[in-house]
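ATP-dependent dethiobiotin synthetase BioD (Dermacoccus abyssi), 232 aa
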Amino acid sequence: MSAPVILVTGTDTEVGKTVTTAAVAAALAAQGMRIAVVKPVQTGLAPGEPGDVDEVARLAGTEGVTTHEFTRLRDPLAPDAAARLAGTSIPTVAEHAERVLEIADRDDVDTVIVEGAGGLLVHLDGGGATLADLAIHLRDNGVRAGFVLVVAPRLGTLNVTALTAEALRHRGLDLIGYVVGSYPDEPGLAERTNLDDLPNAAGAQPLGRLPERAAQLDPNTFRNNASKWVHL
Protein backbone atom coordinates (compact mmCIF):
# COMPACT_ATOMS: atom_id res chain seq x y z
CA MET A 1 0.00 0.00 0.00
CA SER A 2 1.27 3.47 -0.87
CA ALA A 3 2.22 5.88 1.88
CA PRO A 4 -0.24 8.75 2.45
CA VAL A 5 0.63 12.15 1.04
CA ILE A 6 0.31 15.47 2.86
CA LEU A 7 0.25 18.44 0.50
CA VAL A 8 1.31 21.74 2.05
CA THR A 9 -0.13 24.82 0.39
CA GLY A 10 -0.57 28.40 1.46
CA THR A 11 -3.07 31.19 1.17
CA ASP A 12 -0.29 33.19 -0.51
CA THR A 13 3.45 33.27 -0.94
CA GLU A 14 5.67 34.06 2.06
CA VAL A 15 3.20 32.75 4.67
CA GLY A 16 5.55 30.12 6.09
CA LYS A 17 5.01 27.02 3.95
CA THR A 18 8.60 25.83 4.10
CA VAL A 19 9.04 26.28 7.85
CA THR A 20 5.66 24.58 8.37
CA THR A 21 6.74 21.73 6.10
CA ALA A 22 9.90 21.37 8.19
CA ALA A 23 7.91 21.40 11.43
CA VAL A 24 5.46 18.76 10.18
CA ALA A 25 8.35 16.59 8.98
CA ALA A 26 10.18 16.96 12.30
CA ALA A 27 7.06 16.23 14.33
CA LEU A 28 6.27 13.06 12.35
CA ALA A 29 9.90 11.92 12.40
CA ALA A 30 9.87 12.31 16.19
CA GLN A 31 7.10 9.70 16.20
CA GLY A 32 9.42 7.29 14.44
CA MET A 33 7.96 7.79 10.98
CA ARG A 34 10.10 7.87 7.83
CA ILE A 35 9.29 11.03 5.90
CA ALA A 36 9.99 12.01 2.30
CA VAL A 37 9.65 15.73 1.56
CA VAL A 38 9.08 16.68 -2.09
CA LYS A 39 9.30 20.08 -3.78
CA PRO A 40 7.98 19.54 -7.31
CA VAL A 41 9.02 22.97 -8.59
CA GLN A 42 11.49 25.39 -7.00
CA THR A 43 11.69 28.88 -8.47
CA GLY A 44 13.82 31.93 -7.77
CA LEU A 45 17.15 30.14 -7.38
CA ALA A 46 20.14 29.37 -9.55
CA PRO A 47 21.63 25.86 -9.73
CA GLY A 48 23.57 25.05 -6.59
CA GLU A 49 21.86 27.60 -4.35
CA PRO A 50 20.11 26.15 -1.28
CA GLY A 51 16.39 25.78 -1.83
CA ASP A 52 13.32 24.95 0.21
CA VAL A 53 14.21 21.28 0.62
CA ASP A 54 17.64 22.29 1.93
CA GLU A 55 15.95 24.50 4.52
CA VAL A 56 13.67 21.61 5.48
CA ALA A 57 16.69 19.33 5.89
CA ARG A 58 18.49 21.94 7.98
CA LEU A 59 15.58 22.49 10.34
CA ALA A 60 14.01 19.01 10.47
CA GLY A 61 17.30 17.11 10.28
CA THR A 62 18.06 14.12 8.12
CA GLU A 63 17.30 11.37 10.63
CA GLY A 64 14.14 9.83 9.23
CA VAL A 65 13.71 12.65 6.70
CA THR A 66 14.73 12.58 3.02
CA THR A 67 14.19 15.41 0.54
CA HIS A 68 13.55 15.56 -3.19
CA GLU A 69 13.52 18.56 -5.55
CA PHE A 70 12.24 17.77 -9.04
CA THR A 71 12.54 20.98 -11.09
CA ARG A 72 14.33 24.31 -10.58
CA LEU A 73 13.88 27.63 -12.35
CA ARG A 74 15.95 30.76 -11.86
CA ASP A 75 13.36 33.56 -11.85
CA PRO A 76 11.23 34.23 -8.73
CA LEU A 77 7.90 33.76 -10.50
CA ALA A 78 5.14 31.21 -10.78
CA PRO A 79 6.62 28.09 -12.40
CA ASP A 80 4.83 28.49 -15.72
CA ALA A 81 5.92 32.13 -16.01
CA ALA A 82 9.49 31.34 -14.94
CA ALA A 83 9.71 28.56 -17.54
CA ARG A 84 8.27 30.79 -20.25
CA LEU A 85 10.76 33.56 -19.45
CA ALA A 86 13.62 31.05 -19.53
CA GLY A 87 12.43 29.67 -22.85
CA THR A 88 12.29 26.14 -21.49
CA SER A 89 9.71 23.44 -20.92
CA ILE A 90 9.07 21.83 -17.56
CA PRO A 91 7.51 18.52 -16.57
CA THR A 92 3.75 18.35 -16.36
CA VAL A 93 1.98 18.07 -13.04
CA ALA A 94 0.93 14.56 -14.08
CA GLU A 95 4.62 13.67 -14.47
CA HIS A 96 5.39 15.17 -11.07
CA ALA A 97 2.53 13.13 -9.59
CA GLU A 98 3.98 9.94 -11.06
CA ARG A 99 7.30 10.64 -9.35
CA VAL A 100 5.49 11.30 -6.07
CA LEU A 101 3.69 7.98 -6.50
CA GLU A 102 7.02 6.21 -6.97
CA ILE A 103 8.28 7.69 -3.70
CA ALA A 104 5.03 6.84 -1.89
CA ASP A 105 5.38 3.23 -3.04
CA ARG A 106 8.83 2.81 -1.48
CA ASP A 107 9.16 0.44 1.46
CA ASP A 108 11.27 2.93 3.43
CA VAL A 109 8.72 5.79 3.35
CA ASP A 110 5.80 6.11 5.76
CA THR A 111 4.52 9.54 4.73
CA VAL A 112 5.23 11.89 1.83
CA ILE A 113 4.99 15.66 2.29
CA VAL A 114 4.67 17.72 -0.90
CA GLU A 115 5.29 21.46 -0.63
CA GLY A 116 3.65 23.54 -3.31
CA ALA A 117 4.73 26.85 -4.83
CA GLY A 118 2.74 29.88 -3.73
CA GLY A 119 -0.98 29.27 -3.34
CA LEU A 120 -3.18 26.34 -4.27
CA LEU A 121 -3.99 27.37 -7.84
CA VAL A 122 -0.59 28.62 -8.96
CA HIS A 123 0.25 27.07 -12.35
CA LEU A 124 2.95 24.46 -11.85
CA ASP A 125 3.34 23.58 -15.52
CA GLY A 126 2.81 25.02 -18.97
CA GLY A 127 -0.67 23.57 -19.21
CA GLY A 128 -2.03 25.45 -16.22
CA ALA A 129 -2.20 22.46 -13.87
CA THR A 130 -1.93 23.15 -10.16
CA LEU A 131 -1.16 21.52 -6.83
CA ALA A 132 -4.85 20.68 -6.63
CA ASP A 133 -4.52 18.77 -9.91
CA LEU A 134 -1.52 16.91 -8.51
CA ALA A 135 -3.64 15.84 -5.53
CA ILE A 136 -6.45 14.71 -7.82
CA HIS A 137 -3.98 12.60 -9.79
CA LEU A 138 -2.77 10.98 -6.57
CA ARG A 139 -6.31 10.37 -5.37
CA ASP A 140 -7.32 8.83 -8.69
CA ASN A 141 -4.39 6.43 -8.32
CA GLY A 142 -5.59 5.23 -4.92
CA VAL A 143 -3.30 7.32 -2.72
CA ARG A 144 -4.71 8.91 0.43
CA ALA A 145 -3.90 12.60 0.04
CA GLY A 146 -4.89 15.60 2.13
CA PHE A 147 -3.93 19.24 2.45
CA VAL A 148 -2.40 21.26 5.24
CA LEU A 149 -3.17 24.91 4.61
CA VAL A 150 -0.65 27.46 5.87
CA VAL A 151 -2.24 30.80 6.70
CA ALA A 152 -1.04 34.20 7.87
CA PRO A 153 -2.47 35.71 11.05
CA ARG A 154 -2.72 39.22 9.60
CA LEU A 155 -5.69 41.26 8.45
CA GLY A 156 -7.20 39.78 5.28
CA THR A 157 -6.39 36.18 6.09
CA LEU A 158 -10.01 35.16 6.67
CA ASN A 159 -11.01 35.89 3.08
CA VAL A 160 -8.11 34.08 1.37
CA THR A 161 -8.40 31.18 3.83
CA ALA A 162 -12.09 30.78 3.02
CA LEU A 163 -11.42 31.01 -0.72
CA THR A 164 -8.72 28.34 -0.60
CA ALA A 165 -10.86 26.04 1.52
CA GLU A 166 -13.76 26.52 -0.88
CA ALA A 167 -11.53 25.66 -3.84
CA LEU A 168 -10.50 22.42 -2.13
CA ARG A 169 -14.09 21.48 -1.30
CA HIS A 170 -15.19 22.25 -4.87
CA ARG A 171 -12.66 19.69 -6.11
CA GLY A 172 -13.55 17.11 -3.48
CA LEU A 173 -10.12 17.37 -1.85
CA ASP A 174 -9.50 16.79 1.83
CA LEU A 175 -8.38 19.69 4.02
CA ILE A 176 -6.75 18.08 7.05
CA GLY A 177 -6.47 21.43 8.83
CA TYR A 178 -4.60 24.69 8.86
CA VAL A 179 -1.43 26.03 10.48
CA VAL A 180 -0.62 29.65 11.22
CA GLY A 181 2.80 29.87 9.63
CA SER A 182 4.26 32.75 11.63
CA TYR A 183 2.55 34.18 14.71
CA PRO A 184 4.02 37.40 16.13
CA ASP A 185 5.43 37.65 19.63
CA GLU A 186 3.28 40.73 20.19
CA PRO A 187 0.06 40.18 18.23
CA GLY A 188 -2.22 43.08 17.40
CA LEU A 189 -6.00 43.13 17.42
CA ALA A 190 -6.37 41.46 14.02
CA GLU A 191 -3.93 38.65 14.87
CA ARG A 192 -5.68 37.94 18.18
CA THR A 193 -9.22 37.89 16.82
CA ASN A 194 -8.25 35.93 13.71
CA LEU A 195 -7.27 32.98 15.89
CA ASP A 196 -10.92 32.78 16.94
CA ASP A 197 -12.33 33.26 13.45
CA LEU A 198 -9.99 31.11 11.33
CA PRO A 199 -11.72 27.78 12.14
CA ASN A 200 -14.94 29.07 10.58
CA ALA A 201 -13.12 30.54 7.59
CA ALA A 202 -11.25 27.30 6.91
CA GLY A 203 -14.06 24.96 7.84
CA ALA A 204 -11.34 22.81 9.35
CA GLN A 205 -9.47 22.31 12.57
CA PRO A 206 -6.40 24.28 13.64
CA LEU A 207 -3.29 22.10 13.60
CA GLY A 208 -1.13 24.64 15.42
CA ARG A 209 0.91 27.77 14.88
CA LEU A 210 4.59 28.51 14.53
CA PRO A 211 6.19 31.44 16.30
CA GLU A 212 7.59 34.32 14.33
CA ARG A 213 11.23 33.72 13.38
CA ALA A 214 10.99 29.99 14.13
CA ALA A 215 13.39 29.34 11.25
CA GLN A 216 16.04 31.41 12.99
CA LEU A 217 16.14 29.06 15.96
CA ASP A 218 18.92 26.55 16.43
CA PRO A 219 17.86 23.43 14.48
CA ASN A 220 17.92 21.25 17.60
CA THR A 221 15.62 23.72 19.37
CA PHE A 222 13.38 23.78 16.30
CA ARG A 223 13.11 20.00 16.23
CA ASN A 224 12.48 19.77 19.96
CA ASN A 225 9.58 22.20 19.68
CA ALA A 226 8.04 21.05 16.40
CA SER A 227 5.67 18.59 18.07
CA LYS A 228 4.42 21.39 20.34
CA TRP A 229 3.78 23.72 17.42
CA VAL A 230 1.96 21.36 15.05
CA HIS A 231 -0.30 18.41 15.79
CA LEU A 232 -1.19 15.80 13.18
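The two ends are 21 Å apart (CA to CA). Strands lie at 5-10, 35-43, 65-73, 111-119, 145-151, 174-183, 206-211. ok done for today
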